[in-house]
Every structure is written in structure tokens, then in C-alpha cells.
């Protein structure tokens, strides 16, 4: 930053925040008055007693317009991350043209409420304008340096802004570098450069690398661990690691979260949970709420137990504003307040985990019972065991296997959140030993159970294949799916299941397996509208013998437009003098059958230009914009909806916005 700009911005900011402070403190005194941490105190009081923060991701619109949102935001939380307002497309939509309105709004709110701000995010492959993405290496490096220096520099002297996500989501799931436009243009050098430029812009800010699916120990988190270690060895200023924490109850809890945080802490970095939400498959039920609440306490407990964990940020706080239903159509209710700002069991869980007496759980679960084997075939076995107990709760079991009836060593072959597990892919006529051990959320592990020895059945005894399945027929075909049924095969030993094969078109192409079924029916989904497919099935037995394939049935899906149709509703999320963001633009399948694609058209007023978009593919012709579904959000069941968003720049002083939205299902 050049010197003259700093005082100017600082002065502006101080005036704005002083006004906000006077207003807010008048309202907030009864809620925030200092009192000892009590069982019923707000989350931030209990977090502070542990030396941790508890935060939320703020959306600028409700923060400006909804009193209920603001009250919870200031009462319960001690930290704020901007959900979208500090991203590149919000702050620098075109080269060196800056919009700090949303960012300043959040920082001012935090200053007024004695909260810290985590800047999110400087270098990310999403929500970065097109003008950056197409730059050559030299220009892209300059663009990053300018962006980082200006944005971090703007808040460098603001005591509320204490940390930044410098790079976000740089890894693939297998631990290789994501081939983003950053990586493809600059190689991995952009990561170290971004950290160094951020340090130069604010020597006191804590600088983080942030990612999702790195909560447990896996290929991706290990790649992150190795990168952080190597960057620090080169004196690159990486101070902190953010585990986003976008969890879902149907995938189980990453029970080694604490262990994972601890290994990063041992590198000398601070750790934090940066974007916690725990989605469920809708609709809500009290059982699902309870599971979700347990996951929330598990996360807080893990952070409580790790000294280097600075705190936990929840990605929003009310289900009224959450990215989850927009991205995962049948999932949601991921946060700690419902749509009407009522506290959910997950709120109580966070509260109690922060307020609870025992900061660290060191007690391991009891040893599980010896596994009992059943359903032994030539290639698999089912195990079940008696549950362990634990002072806090068992979060899962590790299943260990050794070869033979003695000797060899046990290695982990799977995990289970229940008291059973099915192992497959074994060799026929072969012995194996199995043990299980239990884990709790704090990462304490029980002793291994006694072993059970299993010998798979002979692979050579049964060589007779099942009879060929017959009468394969299709029914209930829609624009995106079909139901198949057939007459059962018979077998000397017993049919274990069927393979379902599919070929494209009415002739030619080859059949590949698209699924299996243990019954005589199967539903195939995700098909294209107005398209033909051929299906066959074949039967298997336990010894792996496979029948001939059945008759072929040809299916043609219905047209996406038939009975389909869609509506579109666009919302102005935020605007400033020279631009605006429309999000969500909600597309709803208003028809009675599924659709597999949609197209929204709308008109930009003259002089307006599109500067960024997400969750749809936009093309511009004159002032007409056509938005087609992205690869992942074209399929919508009857009544289902999805959303996308875009950002526009407009001439200074012009207050018009995009209009004339129509939707079609071609
Ligand atoms: O919650 C954010 C949502 O409003 C935006 O539309 C979306 C755009 O990609 O980004 C969401 O936040 C993401 C965060 O910035 C980075 N980690 C994943 C979050 C959820 O997608």
C-alpha cells in the first residue's frame, strides 16, 4: 500500500465503526454485561474461559437487515469469517477496481462487538474473476501480489483482523496438487509467494492454509502436512492450518480428528476448524438431530483437547442461510439454529462442550468383544462383536486382519461405526485372523479384542454357474431413470446377486456393469433425457461363478421437457456503487417429472458487464445472458431446486440490475 491510502481508509473506518459501536452497545448491554461463565451463558463466554474463539461465517445481507441475526451474531460469537465478502470476486472484480463494502461492513461489526475477524480467502480457484484466470505467468504473479498486498494491507492496522486464509483448497483428494488455473500457470510456487506477500503486507497476521476433507488422517491431510512441513523448513511464513469441517452424518465422524490436529500442532503451527457444518439427509428427525449434536460436540471436544487449536468457526449459524441445500439438494439443517432462529440440539451440544467441566478426555473405550464370523464364503466374511463402552461415547471401530492361523502381523482393513463389518476380496480356502478395537472422539483407542480365525470356503468345489436370468423388463421410465426387473436364476449352491449391465443406444457400443442387486430388481438413475440404453443382467453365486447374460431390454428415456418446465427467482444479494451480486438465483423444476438440464436467460442493462459466476455456465450475447446448468446441477426431480449466482459491474451511479429472468428445460 502507498502511505497516503492508509490514513484515509483508517479514518473512514473509524468513523463508521464508532457509529456502529454506539448503536450496538446501546442495544447489547443487557446481553453482554460481564458475568462469570454460567451454565446458561453465551457460547463466546465459555469459549473465552478456555482461551478459544467460537466463530461464525457472516452473510452481509442478513447482517445488515435482520435484527434477530445480528443479535445472535454479537451475543454468541467472538470471531467472524466473511462467508463471501472478502473473496476475490467481491473485492477486486476487475483489475485494480476495488469494492470493500461487504468486507468493511463485517470488520466494522466485529470491531463494534469485540470480535476477531479471519480473512477468507486470498488465493482460491473459485470466486476468482475471469480476468485473473486467463493471465500469463508474469501478469498472474503480479495480480496475486497486488491483490494480497492491497487486501491484507487495508486491514493490517485494524486490531480486529487477526488472520487470513492465504491459500484455499490446493489439493486433490489423493494428495496431488489441484490443477487449478493457479497451479497450471505458476506451478506450486504461487503458494509460497502468496504467504510471503501476505506476511509483507501484515507482519502480525496469522497466515493459514485451509482445506476440506482433511479432518481425519488420510492422503489429502498427509499431503497438507508434508507441504506445511516443507514450507516452514524453507522459512515460508505458514502459521496456521484450517480444517474446514464440512461434515455429513451419513459419512461417519472422522474419529482421528484430534490425533490429526495434534500432528499438525507438533509442526509448530496453530490449528483451527474454519467452516464447520454437519449436514443431515432431510427431513430432520430427533434421532438425526442427536447424531448431529454428537458430531458437533466431538469437534469442540477435539479442539478443547488440543492446546494449539485456537477455536472453531461454524459456517453460518442459522439453517435459514446455509450453502448446503443449494449444493446437496436433499441434505441440509447443518447448523445450530433452525430457520426461525431457534436453538437446536446441536447448539446445546456446542454450548455444553464449551462449558463442560472436563477439558480433556483421556479415557479409552473398553475392549470390544471377540468378533464372531458368519456368512463365510470363498471370498468374504461378516463379523460382529459386542460393543465397547466409553465415558464420552464410542465413535467407531477399527477392523484388523492378519494372514494365516498364527504369525504375521495385524493391519487395519477397515472401520465401522456399528458393531459389524463385512470383509471381501479374500482368497478361497485361506485362513485369516480378525481383531477389532474401539475409538472415541478424543482419539483414545481401546486394546484390540481377542482374535477370531476364519477359513474361507473352497473356491474349487463349486464350479456350477447359476441359470441365466430371464424376462428382463423395464418399467417406470422417466427422463432420467428406469426400473428393471427379471425372473430369478437358480443355482446348486445359491445365487448371491446379480450384475446389471448397460450399453448405450439401440445397437452397437459395449455393455459395462452399472450396478449390482441382491434382489430381482434394480433402479438405474442419472440417465439423459430422450436417450436409448440397453440393459442385461447376469447372476453370481458365492464361489464367483457367473451365469450367461439375460435377454436385452431397450429403454428410451422420456424428453426432459415433457411434463417438465422450470421457474426462476433471482435475489439481489448485495450491491455497491459500481456493481452487484445476484445470488441465489433459484431454479425450480415446476413440472411433474425429473429434468436433466435447464437454461435461464436474462438481460443486463446497457453498460453492465458480467465479472464472475458460479454453479452455472454463462454465455453473453449483447446484453442477453444465457445460464446453463453446470455438470452437477442439471438433474432436478419434480419440485426440486438448485441455485447459481453471478456478479456484475455497472457504471458508477447506475442503480439498475439484471432483469427479465426466464427458465426453460430444453
Ligand atoms: O458458503 C459459500 C457460498 O455462499 C458460496 O456460494 C460458495 C461459492 O463457491 O462458497 C461457499 O463457501 C465455501 C468456502 O468459501 C470455502 N470452502 C467451501 C465453502 C462451501 O462451499
Automatic annotation (TrEMBL):
Annotated Low complexity bias: 443-457, 472-484
Alphabetized Pfam families for the sequence: CBM_2, fn3, Glyco_hydro_10
Keywords tagged on the record: Carbohydrate metabolism, Glycosidase, Hydrolase, Polysaccharide degradation, Signal, Xylan degradation
Active site residues per record: 275
EC number: 3.2.1.8
Molecular function GO terms recorded: endo-1,4-beta-xylanase activity; polysaccharide binding
All residue ranges annotated as the CBM2 domain in the record: 559-666
Domain Fibronectin type-III residues, every copy: 367-459, 468-560
Cross-referenced Gene3D superfamilies: 2.60.40.290, Glycosidases (3.20.20.80), Immunoglobulins (2.60.40.10)
Keyword Hydrolase attached: yes
Enzyme class: hydrolase
SMART domains associated with the record: CBD_II, FN3, Glyco_10
GH10 domain span: 57-353
Any one Gene Ontology BP term: xylan catabolic process
InterPro entries given in the database record: CBD2, CBM2/CBM3_carb-bd_dom_sf, CBM2_carb-bd_dom_sf, FN3_dom, FN3_sf, GH, GH10, GH10_AS
Signal sequence, renumbered to the chain: 1-39
Region span, Disordered: 354-375, 443-484
Biased composition, class Polar residues, residue ranges: 359-375
SUPFAM superfamilies named among the record's database cross-references: (Trans)glycosidases (SSF51445), Carbohydrate-binding domain (SSF49384), Fibronectin type III (SSF49265)
Superkingdom of source: Bacteria
Catalytic function, reaction form: Endohydrolysis of (1->4)-beta-D-xylosidic linkages in xylans
Family label: Belongs to the glycosyl hydrolase 10 (cellulase F) family.
Entries under PANTHER family matching the protein: BETA-XYLANASE, GLYCOSYL HYDROLASE
Name of the protein in its database record: Beta-xylanase
Species whose genome carries this gene: Catellatospora bangladeshensis
Amino acid at each position: 500500500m502507498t502511505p497516503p491510502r492508509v490514513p484515509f481508509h483508517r479514518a473512514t473506518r473509524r468513523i463508521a465503526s464508532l457509529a456502529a459501536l454506539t448503536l450496538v452497545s446501546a442495544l447489547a448491554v443487557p446481553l453482554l454485561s460481564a458475568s462469570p461463565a454460567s451454565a446458561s451463558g453465551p457460547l463466546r463466554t465459555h469459549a473465552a474461559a478456555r482461551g478459544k474463539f467460537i466463530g461464525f461465517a457472516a452473510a452481509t445481507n442478513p447482517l445488515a437487515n435482520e435484527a434477530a441475526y445480528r443479535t445472535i451474531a454479537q451475543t454468541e460469537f467472538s470471531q467472524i469469517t466473511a462467508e463471501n465478502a472478502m473473496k476475490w470476486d467481491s473485492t477486486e472484480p476487475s483489475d485494480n477496481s476495488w469494492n470493500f463494502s461487504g468486507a468493511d461492513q463485517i470488520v466494522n461489526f466485529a470491531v463494534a462487538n469485540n470480535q476477531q475477524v479471519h480473512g477468507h480467502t486470498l488465493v482460491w480457484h473459485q470466486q476468482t474473476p475471469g480476468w485473473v484466470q486467463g493471465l500469463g505467468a508474469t501478469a498472474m504473479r503480479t495480480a496475486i501480489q497486488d491483490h494480497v498486498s492491497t487486501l491484507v494491507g487495508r486491514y493490517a492496522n485494524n486490531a480486529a483482523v487477526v488472520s487470513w486464509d492465504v491459500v484455499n483448497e490446493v489439493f486433490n483428494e489423493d494428495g496431488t496438487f489441484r490443477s487449478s488455473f493457479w497451479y497450471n500457470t505458476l506451478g506450486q510456487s504461487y503458494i509460497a509467494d502468496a504467504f510471503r506477500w501476505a506476511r509483507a503486507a501484515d507482519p502480525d497476521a496469522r497466515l493459514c492454509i485451509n482445506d476440506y476433507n482433511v479432518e481425519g488422517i488420510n492422503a489429502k491431510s498427509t499431503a497438507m502436512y508434508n507441504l506445511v512441513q516443507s514450507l516452514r523448513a524453507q522459512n515460508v511464513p505458514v502459521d496456521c492450518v484450517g480444517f474446514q469441517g464440512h461434515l455429513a452424518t451419513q459419512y461417519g465422524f472422522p474419529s482421528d480428528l484430534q490425533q490429526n490436529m495434534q500432528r499438525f500442532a507438533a509442526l509448530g503451527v496453530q490449528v483451527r476448524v474454519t467452516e464447520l457444518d454437519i449436514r443431515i439427509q432431510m427431513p430432520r428427525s430427533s434421532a438425526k438431530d442427536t447424531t448431529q449434536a454428537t458430531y458437533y460436540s466431538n469437534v469442540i471436544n477435539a479442539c478443547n483437547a488440543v492446546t494449539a487449536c485456537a477455536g472453531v468457526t461454524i459456517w453460518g449459524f442459522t439453517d435459514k442461510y446455509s450453502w448446503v441445500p443449494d449444493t446437496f439438494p436433499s441434505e441440509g439443517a447443518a447448523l445450530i439454529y433452525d430457520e426461525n432462529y431457534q436453538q437446536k440440539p446441536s447448539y446445546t451440544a456446542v454450548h455444553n462442550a464449551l462449558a463442560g467441566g472436563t477439558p480433556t478426555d483421556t479415557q479409552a473405550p473398553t475392549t470390544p468383544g471377540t468378533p464372531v464370523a458368519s456368512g463365510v464364503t470363498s471370498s468374504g466374511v461378516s463379523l460382529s462383536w459386542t460393543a465397547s463402552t466409553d465415558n464420552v461415547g464410542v465413535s467407531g471401530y477399527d477392523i484388523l486382519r492378519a494372514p494365516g492361523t498364527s504369525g504375521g502381523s495385524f493391519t487395519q482393513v477397515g472401520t465401522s461405526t456399528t458393531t459389524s463389518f463385512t470383509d471381501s476380496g479374500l482368497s478361497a480356502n485361506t485362513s485369516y485372523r480378525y481383531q477389532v478395537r474401539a475409538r472415541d472422539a478424543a482419539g483414545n483407542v481401546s486394546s484390540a479384542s481377542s482374535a477370531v480365525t476364519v477359513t474361507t470356503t473352497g473356491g474349487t468345489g463349486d464350479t456350477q454357474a447359476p441359470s441365466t436370468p430371464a424376462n428382463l423388463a423395464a418399467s417406470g421410465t422417466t427422463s432420467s431413470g428406469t426400473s428393471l426387473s427379471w425372473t430369478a436364476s437358480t443355482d446348486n449352491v445359491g445365487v448371491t446377486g446379480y450384475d446389471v449391465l448397460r450399453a448405450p443406444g439401440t445397437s452397437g457400443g459395449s455393455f459395462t456393469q452399472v450396478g449390482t442387486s441382491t434382489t430381482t430388481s434394480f433402479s438405474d438413475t442419472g440417465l439423459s433425457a430422450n436417450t436409448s440404453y440397453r440393459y442385461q443382467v447376469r447372476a453370481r453365486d458365492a464361489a464367483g461363478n457367473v451365469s450367461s447374460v439375460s435377454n436385452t431390454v431397450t429403454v428410451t428415456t422420456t424428453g426432459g421437457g415433457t411434463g417438465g418446465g422450470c421457474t426462476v427467482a433471482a435475489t439481489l444479494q448485495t450491491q455497491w456503487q459500481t456493481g452487484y451480486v445476484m445470488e441465489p438465483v433459484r431454479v425450480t423444476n415446476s413440472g411433474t417429472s425429473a429434468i436433466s438440464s435447464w437454461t435461464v436467460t436474462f438481460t443486463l442493462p446497457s453498460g453492465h458487464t458480467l465479472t464472475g459466476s458460479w454453479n452455472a455456465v454463462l454465455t453473453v450475447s449483447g446484453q442477453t445472458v444465457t445460464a446453463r446448468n453446470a455438470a452437477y446441477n442439471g438433474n432436478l426431480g419434480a419440485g426440486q431446486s438448485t441455485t447459481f449466482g453471478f456478479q456484475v459491474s455497472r457504471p458508477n451511479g447506475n442503480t439498475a440490475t439484471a432483469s427479465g429472468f426466464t427458465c426453460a428445460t430444453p
